[in-house]
Task: structure prediction
Amino acid sequence: MIQQIPLAVLALLGAVGMIFDVRWRRLPNWLSLLTMVSGLAVCVLTAAPDTNMLSTIASHVAHGLVALVAGMVLFRLGAVGGGDAKFYAALAMWLPLSRAALFLGVTAGAGLVSLALWFLARRIAGRRVAGRHGDAQGKFPFGVAIALGALGAFAIG
Result:
């Protein structure tokens, strides 16, 4: 039972991110900070007693930093929003660097499913999928796929 608490916390943080991103198309900094800190806390609290705590923490922090740098490059190129990049990096802190490819792959899969459902929902609603420039409702909420990807990668591992 106690092993399910981290998964529940991650699901709650992911759900908050999804709600913010779908409703307002933004992922607040406080949510990314809370997600990052809780991920590191879970890393410390759930580490196996026979592991080197410093290397475990370093692996989680390295994953977060690699994700943040990659996200900022994608942000600079206009591929993702800054909130998406920070939220992904914060969620990466929940997983060691060895699970980076798993997190990315599950997030990409969740993104494809989310994108298909989003297009379908917009079509059924009779709205254009691509909004006017600056129209937040026309943007795809990547936070949904990011949260689902983190939840999936965490649960698999």
Notes: Residues 100-124 form the longest helix (25 residues).
